[in-house]
Amino acid sequence: MQITLDQDHWEVDAPLTMEHVLTEVSERAHAQSRIVTKLQLDHRTITDRDLDPVFLAESVARFRRLTAVSEPMPELILAAEGSMRKYTETLRAEGAALLSPLRFGPLPLSALDAWLGQLADYLEFVDGASAITQAGTRASSLAPWIQQLLEARAAGDRIRLADLLEYEILPRMDVRR
């Protein structure tokens, strides 16, 4: 199989699987601070929905050519900033909606846990974006507060959870640099 990643070309042979090839393509792009944004296998465009276990286990011998296009990470992050700002606003609003039920009940902790999962996604993006752009981030200023939030969650201290959320975490959530 012939592989092209932007201007780089190489060949691979069986018994490699598509998973091995796509991993190598991704690692080569990542080594140049780029992310693969488009894949074409022979004459078929590949999307994330195609990346199921059956496809990933297929032998490269079935295909002739893989073409990958990548984009610089800083450009992708800049392009995503508007969407991330909207996500942050939504996450803040959902966090604020948890305050009254935390203080006065009832709030199933599963709702808080779901919100914490979304907060983790937010932190992953903001920390990744700041590492790539070398800009300061406010997400790192959240780390001690999130640790305290998790401790309060483990202790079942709903008032402390609400206070940390309202006065420490929500005000620090931002994607602006």
Explain how this protein is built.
It is a single chain. The chain has helices spanning 18-31, 53-57, 73-104, 109-133, 143-155, 158-169, and strands at 2-5, 8-11, 34-41, 44-46, 65-72. The chain is an alpha+beta fold. It folds into two domains: 2-72, Roll (Ubiquitin-like (UB roll)); 75-172. The protein has a five-stranded mixed sheet with strand order 2-1-5-3-4. A hairpin with a 2-residue loop joins strand 1 (2-5) and strand 2 (8-11). The protein is elongated.
Helix content, binned percent: 55-70%
SS summary, helix count: 6
Tell me about the biggest sheet? Answer: 5 strands, mixed
H/E element sequence: EEHEEHEHHHH
SS content category = alpha+beta
Shape: elongated
Q: Uncertain segments of ≥5 residues (pLDDT<50)?
A: none
Number of strands: 5
Please list the strands of the largest sheet in the order they lie side by side.
2-1-5-3-4
Radius of gyration: 21 Å
Q: What is the end-to-end distance?
A: 43 Å
Mean of residue pLDDT values: 87
Strand content: 15-25%
Number of domains: 2
Quickly describe the structure.
With 177 residues, this protein is an alpha+beta fold. The chain has helices spanning 18-31, 53-57, 73-104, 109-133, 143-155, 158-169, and strands spanning 2-5, 8-11, 34-41, 44-46, 65-72.
